Amino acid sequence: MATQIDKEACREAYNQVRDDNTETSWAAFKYEGSKIVPAGLGTDYEDFKKLCTDDGRLFGFVRFTTGDALSKRAKFTLITWIGENVSGLQRAKISTDKTLVKDVVQNFAKEFMISDPRELEEEYLRMELKKAGGANYDAQAE
Question: What's the pLDDT at 130?
Answer without folding.
Answer: 81
